[in-house]
Amino acid sequence: MIAALSKEPHSIKPLCKLFRIPRSSYHYRLKNRGTVTPEKALLRQKVVDIHSRSRGSAGARTIAGQLTQEGENVGRYKAASLMK
Question: What is the pTM of this model?
Answer without folding.
Answer: 0.59
